[in-house]
Amino acid sequence: MEYLEVVTTVATKEDAERIARTLLEEHLAACVQIVGPITSMYRWQGEIERADEYQCQIKCRADHFKRIEESIARIHPYEVPEVVAHPLPACSSAYEKWLQTELRD
């Protein structure tokens, strides 16, 4: 089984917690770590922007990425939400067993 860490950012802790709870309730995530506030700088509509945000680090199965992307897009307040994934090439056997237990089809 392949696993990912999917990352998204939002403006408020409440939005981060809503995304986390939704993905956990849908069994698409085994764990969501909420980090923040962080400072993000980015180009948007021709301007350089700065924002304080909260980052969601979502542990999931690779084959769930599309469904996670759709769930985030459905509830995310941004016009273009960040949804990027990083592979988890290795993790401890105990953690992997826990992931398998928590993540369903």
UniProtKB/TrEMBL annotation:
SUPFAM superfamilies: GlnB-like (SSF54913)
GO MF term list: copper ion binding
Short name of any one Pfam family annotated for the protein: CutA1
UniProt record, GO biological process: response to metal ion
InterPro entries: Ion_tolerance_CutA, N-reg_PII-like_a/b, N-reg_PII/ATP_PRibTrfase_C
Top-level division of the source organism's lineage: Bacteria
Family of this protein: Belongs to the CutA family.
Protein name: CutA1 divalent ion tolerance protein
